[in-house]
């Protein structure tokens, strides 16, 4: 992975990931905390997916369309 990230293409892709993915994780951690309630791979996977779904649904519900002038 280090060799892949050392290339110019790898660096560009990682910069794009940090701009798209990291804010979502930060928002989820801020709202729900950093600790999970369940243990085990399947339970943790389900909990993370549930938190992401709740986060996205909250964004949809609170979304106000832009008014075009």
TrEMBL record:
It comes from the Bacteria. Residues 2-61 form the Transposase DDE domain. InterPro entries: Tnp_DDE_dom. It holds the Pfam family DDE_Tnp_1_6. This is Transposase. It comes from Streptomyces xiangluensis.
């Amino acid at each position: 992975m280090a060799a892949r990230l050392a290339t110019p293409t790898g660096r560009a892709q990682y910069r794009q990931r940090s701009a798209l993915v990291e804010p979502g994780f930060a928002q989820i951690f801020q709202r729900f905390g950093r600790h999970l309630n369940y243990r085990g791979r399947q339970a943790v996977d389900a909990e993370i997916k549930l938190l992401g779904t709740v986060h996205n649904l909250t964004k949809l519900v609170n979304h106000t369309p832009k008014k075009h002038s």
